[in-house]
């Protein structure tokens, strides 16, 4: 009954650990019914293997507009009411398979490697500005937010003259001090902007993700303007805050682990491995992973009834001792590549190779160029995003 169902805790408490409740579920009730803050019931899964099953098993649907789809916050509801056509993230096969096949070629390791010089330039420019400015500086504002935003501009082919507009509005989307109305205004401005951008590219296709999609659509005779708008908007919201939060959390983690910083300075090639461990350690997007069971499914001895919403507490899953030895230890030398931070299965993060390149460049550049980097306030004063579906930091005051 409702009374005996625990409310799902969404705040982590300690930034370096999953919520206490989620770890208890992992130990005691790996698949359990919970009440969400929005008043909906859902099932929570915490074991690494169960989460991989849910994310890859066609008996679970990714349809966020399903009446039982887990809604953790009011904002999730707005996505379900979005006037845009279904986004990749919400589609099921075969629709999803088809739509993803259209864009997957834009995110290959090779394409991402080609973006490296430009990403390095963006990082260097922002670091120059930070180092020339007053101390202390907020690393979130100086680096973590603008870098991914400009990289998305690069990817989508937003002209240089529109970068400021694009950045201001996408920062507003994530601004906790903004009112709901201001945020909705920012969404509208961005949608209108992307709509115009796509129209311009339809007239004269450019050599960038959107331009190439337009050419591809024409070749197959399936021109679809609103589908492109949905894709552009998804890339913007999926690639901005996530990467920004990993930049600030990863920097903070390094500052807390001088021995790891030294090891990385001595051998910058280790950064790829360290980034995987950071991704595992924080698993920031866990509350964003939700599904609906299409049939009764038994997992770890518990039956999830058909039609139920399911949340995957992947941060606990990435601390499952059956998957990672001594899981609470931060160890940049471990092999963490099989973590759940990018999800798993058909919806596994489309932008993961891009995120990796961005994170590697940011951390290596910080280590190389700002050897004296340190926190400008005591660690207890830092403020973490316990109020958001994607975990991160509100500010990271640093000096050097
Ligand atoms: C999907 C995390 C960066 C684009 C996902 C999913 C996760 C995730 C967990 C799966 C959601 C699910 O199964 O329900 C992250 C993290 C990032 C990051 C932690 C940064 C560290 C990016 C970037 C982009 C991007 C930079 C693109 C510019 C996408 C897209 C999807 C997705 C388009 C949906 C794929 C699909 O449904 O087929 N991401 N992401 N992400 N991500 Fe990322």
TrEMBL record:
Pfam families: p450
Tagged with keyword DNA-binding: no
Annotated keywords: Heme, Iron, Metal-binding, Monooxygenase, Oxidoreductase
Keyword Ubl conjugation among record annotations: no
Any one GO MF annotation of this record: monooxygenase activity
Spans annotated as Disordered: 60-80
Similarity remark: Belongs to the cytochrome P450 family.
Name of the molecule in the record: Cytochrome
């Amino acid at each position: 009954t409702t009374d005996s169902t625990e409310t799902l805790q969404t705040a982590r408490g300690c930034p370096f650990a999953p919520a206490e409740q989620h770890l208890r579920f992992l130990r005691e009730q790996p698949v359990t019914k919970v009440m969400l803050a929005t008043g909906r019931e859902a099932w929570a899964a915490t074991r690494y293997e169960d989460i991989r099953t849910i994310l890859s098993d066609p008996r679970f649907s990714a349809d966020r507009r399903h009446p039982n789809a887990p809604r953790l916050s009011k904002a999730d509801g707005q996505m379900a009411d979005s006037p845009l056509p279904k986004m990749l993230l919400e589609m099921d096969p075969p629709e999803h398979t088809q739509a993803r096949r259209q864009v997957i070629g834009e995110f290959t390791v090779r394409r991402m490697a080609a973006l490296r010089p430009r990403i390095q330039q963006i990082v260097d420019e922002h670091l120059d500005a930070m180092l020339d400015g007053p101390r202390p500086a907020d690393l979130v504002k100086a680096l973590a937010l603008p870098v991914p935003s400009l990289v998305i501009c690069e990817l989508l082919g937003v002209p240089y003259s529109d970068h400021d507009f694009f950045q201001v509005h996408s920062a507003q989307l994530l601004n906790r001090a903004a009112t709901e109305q201001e945020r909705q205004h920012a969404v509208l401005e961005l949608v209108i902007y992307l709509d115009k951008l796509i129209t311009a590219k339809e007239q004269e296709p450019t050599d960038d993700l959107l331009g190439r999609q337009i050419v591809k659509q024409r070749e197959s005779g399936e021109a679809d303007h609103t589908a492109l708008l949905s894709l552009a908007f998804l890339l913007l919201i999926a690639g901005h805050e996530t990467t920004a939060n990993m930049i600030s959390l990863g920097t903070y983690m390094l500052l807390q682990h001088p021995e790891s910083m030294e090891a990385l300075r001595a051998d910058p090639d280790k950064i790829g491995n360290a980034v995987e461990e950071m991704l595992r350690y924080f698993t920031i997007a866990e509350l964003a992973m939700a599904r609906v069971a299409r049939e009764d499914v038994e997992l770890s001895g518990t039956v999830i009834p058909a039609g139920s919403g399911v949340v995957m507490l992947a941060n606990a899953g990435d601390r499952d001792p059956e998957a990672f030895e001594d899981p609470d230890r931060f160890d940049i030398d471990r092999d963490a590549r099989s973590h759940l931070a990018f999800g798993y299965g058909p919806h596994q993060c489309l932008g993961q190779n891009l995120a990796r390149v961005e994170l590697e460049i940011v951390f290596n550049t910080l280590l190389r160029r700002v050897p004296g980097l340190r926190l400008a306030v005591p660690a207890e004063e830092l403020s973490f995003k316990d109020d958001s579906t994607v975990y991160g930091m509100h500010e990271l005051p640093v000096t050097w």
